[in-house]
């Protein structure tokens, strides 16, 4: 299978693991010369909060989620790493429930791989990755790379 498009799906909770996500997507995309789609998914309430934080004029009709994603700090950090490694990318923003919306983005972008992040779970929670990661792992139209945040191990 040829790797042409890699979707790196992030949300508001991924700021603390953006470095690890960036390293992983470089490892996956660079050898294949694949294009990375930086997909930032917001729930309705997260989107409203980000519009306010980034001082978008919400009186304007139809603020474009792609533009909101482009201005988000996590996406800017990821773009810096991709630029440094000369990896082509595009940015997509989407509003909806995280899991299904990531799967939808992967399908729309015809992704060959999806990269998502998650956090370490309690012993009870280890059996289940988490609702977003689980939804993506089970429903994505392509292989999924799950990047666990091990920062919690050091706490």
TrEMBL record:
CDD domains: USP-like. InterPro entries: Rossmann-like_a/b/a_fold (IPR014729), Universal_stress_UspA (IPR006015), UspA (IPR006016). Residues 5-148 form the UspA domain. Gene3D superfamilies: HUPs. Transmembrane segments: none annotated. It comes from the Archaea. PANTHER family: STRESS RESPONSE PROTEIN NHAX (PTHR46268), UNIVERSAL STRESS PROTEIN UP12 (PTHR46268:SF6). Belongs to the universal stress protein A family. This is UspA domain-containing protein. It comes from Natrialba chahannaoensis JCM 10990.
């Amino acid at each position: 299978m040829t790797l042409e498009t890699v979707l790196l799906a992030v949300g508001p909770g991924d700021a603390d693991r953006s470095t690890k996500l960036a390293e992983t997507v470089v490892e996956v995309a660079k050898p294949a010369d694949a294009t990375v789609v930086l997909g930032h998914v917001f729930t309705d309430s997260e989107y409203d909060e980000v519009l306010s934080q980034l001082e978008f004029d919400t009186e304007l009709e139809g603020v474009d989620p792609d533009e909101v994603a482009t201005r988000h700090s996590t996406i800017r950090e990821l773009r810096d790493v991709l630029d440094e490694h000369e990896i082509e990318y595009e940015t997509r923003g989407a509003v909806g429930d995280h899991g299904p919306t990531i799967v939808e983005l992967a399908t729309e972008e015809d992704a060959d791989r999806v990269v998502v992040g998650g956090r370490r779970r309690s012993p009870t929670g280890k059996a289940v990755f988490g609702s977003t990661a689980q939804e993506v792992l089970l429903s994505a139209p392509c292989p999924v790379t799950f990047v666990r945040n091990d920062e919690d191990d050091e706490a």
